[in-house]
Design goal:
This protein has 263 residues and is of the alpha/beta class. It has 8 helices and 7 strands. Bound molecules: NADP nicotinamide-adenine-dinucleotide phosphate.
Length: 263
C-alpha cells in the first residue's frame, strides 16, 4: 500500500528521541520531509542529521519548547521558510511529573496545563493557517492510556491528556469541512528513555531491580513485551497519511492488547 507520504512535510514535536522520533523516522522512511523540534539543540540537530543520513530525505531540526509559544511560532515559520508547506503535525511534549492529589498546588496544575494542553492548542494554532491555505492537512496528538484508564500516580497527566483528546475530537468536527483531519495516538508502554526512567523509579520504591520491574510490567501485557518506537511510529505514519483519508476524530491505541475497554 502506498501511504502517499512522499514529499509531504510533517512537523513532529518533542522528537529528538522516543515516540516523536519514532514517528519522524517512520514518515521519513516513506519519503516525507520532516521538521522536528525539541529543547536541546545538540540532540535535535543530531536526530535531524541521523534521519537525513538514513532516509535521504531532507530533515530540519529546530530548537523549540512546547511551553513557549514564541518558539512554537518560530518553528512553524522556519518549517514554512524551509519547505514551503506543512502537511502534518504531531503534537507531543514531555509528560507532567508523577504524583497524586495532595502533592500538587496551583503552580503545579498551571505548569501541567501549559505543558500538555495549552501547548497542544498553540501547536495546532501555529500550523492551521498553512493547512487551510493548502486545502488540507493531518494533525496527530500523542497522549497516554490514562485517557481511558487513569493511572493513580499520574494525576496531572490523566486530567490534562483527557483535555487533549477532547480538543482533538472537537477540532476534528470543526475542521473536517476544511479537509484537516485530527486524530489521537495512544501509547501503552513503548520502550523509551521515559519508560525506562519510570521503571527505575518504581523499582527503587519496591526494592527490586529495573529488569525485574520491567519483567513484571511485561507480564501484564497480552503481547508479552513493551512496544518499540518503530511499531508506534508506523501507526502514526498511517494516521498522518492519505491512506487514512477518511479517518478523523479517532483514537488509535498501540499497547499490545493491554487495555481491556471495548471502546
Ligand atoms: P522520551 O523518550 O523521554 O522523549 C521525550 C522527547 O520530548 C525528547 O525528545 C525531549 O527532548 C522532548 N521534550 C521533552 N519536553 C519537551 C518540551 N517541553 N518541549 C519540546 N520537547 C520536549 O519520552 P517518550 O516516551 O517519547 O514520551 C513522549 C510523551 O509520551 C510524553 O509526554 C510521555 O509522558 C508520553 N507517554 C509515553 C509513553 C511510552 O510508553 N513511552 C506512554 C504514555 C505516555 P528535550 O528534553 O531535549 O526537549
Amino acid at each position: 500500500m502506498d501511504l502517499g507520504l512522499k514529499d509531504k512535510v510533517i512537523m513532529v514535536a518533542a522528537a529528538s528521541k522516543g515516540l516523536g522520533f519514532g514517528i519522524a523516522q517512520a514518515v521519513a522512511r516513506e519519503g516525507a520531509r520532516v521538521s522536528i523540534g525539541s529543547r536541546t539543540e545538540r540532540d535535535i540537530m543530531w536526530a535531524a542529521r541521523n534521519l537525513q543520513a538514513e532516509t535521504g530525505v531532507p530533515a530540519l531540526g529546530a530548537v523549540m519548547d512546547a511551553t513557549d509559544n514564541e518558539s512554537i511560532l518560530e518553528w512553524a515559520a522556519a518549517t514554512l521558510t524551509h519547505f514551503g508547506r506543512i502537511d502534518g503535525l504531531v503534537v507531543n511534549a514531555g509528560g507532567p511529573p508523577a504524583g497524586s492529589f495532595d502533592d500538587f498546588d496551583d503552580t503545579d496544575w498551571q505548569a501541567a496545563f501549559e505543558l500538555t494542553l495549552l501547548s497542544s492548542v498553540r501547536m495546532i494554532r501555529a500550523v492551521l493557517p498553512a493547512m487551510r491555505e493548502q486545502g488540507g492537512g493531518a494533525i496527530l496528538t500523542i497522549t497516554s492510556s490514562s485517557i481511558k484508564e487513569p493511572i493513580d500516580i499520574l494525576l496531572l497527566s490523566n486530567v490534562m491528556r483527557s483535555g487533549v483528546v477532547s480538543l482533538a475530537k472537537s477540532l476534528s468536527q470543526q475542521l473536517a469541512p476544511e479537509k484537516i483531519r485530527v486524530n489521537n495516538l495512544v501509547p501503552g508502554r513503548i520502550d523509551t528513555d521515559r519508560v525506562r526512567a519510570l521503571d527505575k523509579l518504581t523499582a527503587e520504591k519496591l526494592g527490586v531491580t529495573p529488569e525485574q520491574q520491567k519483567a513484571a510490567q511485561e507480564s501484564l501485557i497480552p503481547w508479552g513485551r513493551y512496544g518499540t518506537i518503530e511499531e508506534f511510529g508506523k501507526a502514526g505514519a498511517f494516521l498522518l497519511s492519505d491512506a487514512a483519508s477518511y479517518i478523523t476524530g479517532e483514537t488509535l491505541i498501540v499497547d499490545g492488547g493491554s487495555m481491556r475497554t471495548v471502546w
